[in-house]
Amino acid sequence: MSDIKVEKTIFLKIQQDVRLPFSKINLKKTGHNSHLGYDYFTLDDFLPKATELLANAGLCTIFNIDYDSNGIEMAKLAVTDGMNTIEYHVPTSNVPRMEGIFETGSKITYCKRYLYMNLLELTEPDAAEISNTGEPEKTEKKKAKATEKQINMIRSNYDEENIAKMLEYYNIQSLEELDIETASKVIERKVGKK
Hints:
By secondary structure, the protein is an alpha+beta fold. Helix content is about 45%, strand content about 15%. It folds into two domains: about 120 residues, no CATH class; about 45 residues, no CATH class. It is built from seven helices and five strands; from the N terminus they run αββαβββααααα. The strands form two sheets. A three-stranded antiparallel β-sheet has the order 3-4-5. β3 and β4 form a beta hairpin.
């Protein structure tokens, strides 16, 4: 009989030591959206148990928000066993906007919640499924379009391939459809690297 011990891959650790035991936990949703009338998981509902399971599996998570090579702001959750790392990503552009300092906290909480839900394969109905109640949805204020100067700066700092990826990511046909805030972020990210 052989005494050779085979190490689990990071994928097996996540699946067998984290997701499987986590799926057997009876979680309670403590968040409530009173406007649309549905309950949802908050970080408090699952993060403590997830952290415990990850630690027991020899895994550590690192959350951060950064820009990708196209200047698109992305939230990232890295899971590492010290040797190998898996990253989960979500764009921050889909995060509901709030006022002032609350926007930063909201963005972090919102992205972290969805990244951990992805890691843990935790499911719940999408808000879009729930909001299909026949009630009119709130319309967002129309944002001011990017200026000609911003568009020219983007064109001079990004090649055609990256501009094409940017258009696809933002689901627009031309740079002229970008709003001022998004264009500023795209420019800041690229110009800040130089």
